[in-house]
Prior knowledge:
By secondary structure, this protein is α/β, with parallel strands linked by helices.
Amino acid sequence: MQLSKIKIKNYRLLIDAELEVEPKTTLIVGRNNTAKTLCFECIGNVLDGAPFSFNDYPLQKRENLYTKIALFMEKKITFEELAKQLEPISIEFLVDYSLDDPEDNLGALSPFIIDVDVDTTTALIRVEFRLKADEKALWKLLEESYYKDGVFTLDDDTHNAIVANFYKLFELTVYAVNPKIPEEKQVKKHKELKELFPFHIIPAERLLGEDGTQNSSLSALISDFFDMSEDELDPSITKKVKELRSIVENANKSVQQQSNEILSTLVSSSVGFGYPNSEELQLGVTTQLSIDEQIKNQTQLSYTAGASKESLPSKYNGLGYKNLIKMEFLLAAFAKKVEKCGTACIPLLFIEEPESHMHPQMQHAFAEYLEAFLGKITSVGIQTFLTSHSAHVANTMVFSKIRYTQKTKDGVTYKNLSTFAQENPTNIDFIRKYLTLTKCDLFFADKAIFVEGASERLLLPDMIEKCAKAGDFDSQAYKLPAQYYTLIEIGGAYAYKFIPFIEFLGIPCLILTDLDSVLGTEGKNGRTYYKSVPVYLGETTSNKTIKWWWRKSKGLSEDDKGKIPLTEITLMTADEKTKGKCHLEFQTKEQGLCGHSLEEAIRNVNRAHYELEDTITEDDIEFSGKSKTDFALDLVYECDDYTIPAYIKSGLKWLNEQKILE
């Protein structure tokens, strides 16, 4: 059995969120402040049985809360109507046991299976933080705030009373729900829910020391070795643990006996006043020594230097290794805990930002081998949830395990990348390979800029700063340089493959590409061959992204082979260059000429720098250099006040003005 889906309603940003859960590992990625960790916190609250606070109730729902309670206090609606109209904080767990043998004991899941149909293979559990069924208590808590001198009054005191008494007004209730008939449900004990879902959270802010400044995970693990019975221990360590226990037991006996004798002599010799005499019971001392407690509480991790047997304390090692070792101990401790449950429960493990202090290669290794490590230390199927801001972690995971958090004005949704893969089979392989090869941070950006090549990648950050200084971004309080954008070098031949993916993620995206004007000539075999020419000679474009975009705007098939006249492309309006949250820009005519690449556009608008006359043609601005990278670097270092081509400035202004939350 395994958890397959989680639904959360009315918890902070999670107004109506659904998270599809993978059998082994689910990775949640997204921008900052998009509720990646909120899911963990909500589940942790519920499984701990902790009450929610007023701050957990979403802003969008509070006005309705105030209004409905006021109507009840004014006696305009009944208590039963109030209970129905108030939206509770709720969470649903959908458990799939279709792969279990029908004869198997489903253990802790059994209390939540209330559908007697043998064909039903899912169990639905709902937990609600809902209004307590105690009308008198509610009235008693709020009456003084709503009635001043016997007159019904609405003011700040009424709101404050709800805030202060929120946890008293509501309570957690656990239901087993019939997945086929949602109205059919049974109240269950919270203990039954906790037994079904043993869970452990490894937070992002984890202390990494093993130097006595905290209850170390190493000490906790060693305590388990002393407390477990032999049949509970991993067979690979049973022999060594038995050996350690034997040494400790013998040492305890020897030290106990010797210390008792010496201390008894010291006490007898020190006590005077004639007592005790030889005819009475003699004084003695019994000291309870426990070496195993010392081992449990005082054992610290250290690092030894080979055969020299010299050692250094844990705090002398790098934070990345300490973080990795710390998580290994915590994972091992949790694995030992859930081994006692066997297959009768569904263990949930939450790891927040495992990449802390790790270098990229270590992040990659952690993500790649996490499942193998858990499989090695326990046979129980632990379902793991990760959150991450690391492109190295995200791009190591297969798409089916990734959930992208998108934040809108209506709340946060968890998008399953498998859904996109199924809907876009022709694009998904390229996107997956590109993300893996480049480690791009598309999942964590507010906005994206796709550029043609190395020249754009080198020049765009400088151009953005120049536009900001010139006041081109002043229409927004937070200007583009301060916004979290990612710059992705993809080229006109492939940028269009990313457009459906960008739309799926809901990120504003600017595509800067080249016009790539070409002229066709007919070969001896009757086939048309195209060569690059200045724009004034061009009859069409060789740029696949522009062609894809133009066909989409005209409602044509992507497979359409018709030639697209270059004039139709150059005459596209700003609206025609915008498709949803994506905007396309390419070279336009400036000072009477139009380049067909970035380099030509720059030469055209910076004629003095390149020693070009005013009366030149498009042939004269042709870029004939061998290295576009050198061209970009020379411009930055040799010409501080160069002019930015209009198409780039236009695109950057568009991106600057795009809203993230819609």
